[in-house]
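TASK: fixed-backbone design
INPUT:
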């Protein structure tokens, strides 16, 4: 069953949001790691 165009765009939006969240989380993790290494 093919997805409706609206469903596809919603899916894409959710996916890109997830990727953005992952990048931000990764940046925070790296930041914490750097601070731990410096001390």
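OUTPUT:
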């Amino acid at each position: 069953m093919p997805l409706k165009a609206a469903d596809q765009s919603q899916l894409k939006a959710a996916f890109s949001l997830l990727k953005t969240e992952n990048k931000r989380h990764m940046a925070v993790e790296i930041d914490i790691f750097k601070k731990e290494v410096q001390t």
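COMMENT: The radius of gyration is 17 Å.
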